[in-house]
Amino acid sequence: MDTSSPAEEEGGHGSGGNVFGEPPAAPIELNLTALMDILSNLLFFLLAAFGATIVMAINATVPVQSPDKNDVAATKQTVTAGLTVGKQGFDVTFSGTAQSPEELEKIHIKIPLREGDFDYAALTAHLVSVKEKYPRSDTMILSTEAGLKYDTMVKTMDAARETTVKVSGIERLVPVFPTVVVTAGSK
Questions:
Q1: Of the candidates 72, 91, 119, which has an alpha carbon nearest to the alpha carbon of residue 186?
Q2: What would the pLDDT profile of 120-163 be if each residue is shown by its tens digit?
Q3: Which domain holds residue 119?
Q4: 103 is a domain residue
Q5: In whole angstroms, what is the distance from residue 161 CA to residue 180 CA?
Q6: What is the pTM of this model?
Q7: To which H or E segment does residue 144 belong?
Q8: I need a labelling partner for 156 at 20 to 30 A (CA). Which of 4, 13, 97, 174 fits?
């Protein structure tokens, strides 16, 4: 009994050929190492760039000198708050060109630490009372003593930025001193 296939009888290559009797093609091997290196580097750079854009920034401004606008308050309805955060508590001063020094001294306050922690509620309450007297005020200059925690600075800015007020039975979020200029602290 003959077990040869018709392809072998005609000089073909047996079971390894294709339907046309041609020899099988050599297997193709791709070296993807370089491509994977490029893609992994690209992925790391994209992740780093994306991570940098997510970091939240503190809403603060940098003082700018301009001839048409003075940094110090210029109307009777406006004062600029100067807030120094130290290890003893808050020292809140105010400046304005339309107010007398005596008038500004009346609203100056030192808020000591309360049970070893900063009294943010007292700070907000005092700033709200000043805002009621000088409604166009919106700028605060913040300086801190050296060695103060970053978290304390952020909580201070949050306490000065806005507060919740109940108007006609509805609670509303109102700005107090939303514009914060951060300056170098004392050493």
A1: 91
A2: 999 999 999 998 888 888 889 889 888 888 888 889 888 988 88
A3: 80-182
A4: yes
A5: 8
A6: 0.59
A7: strand 139-144
A8: 97
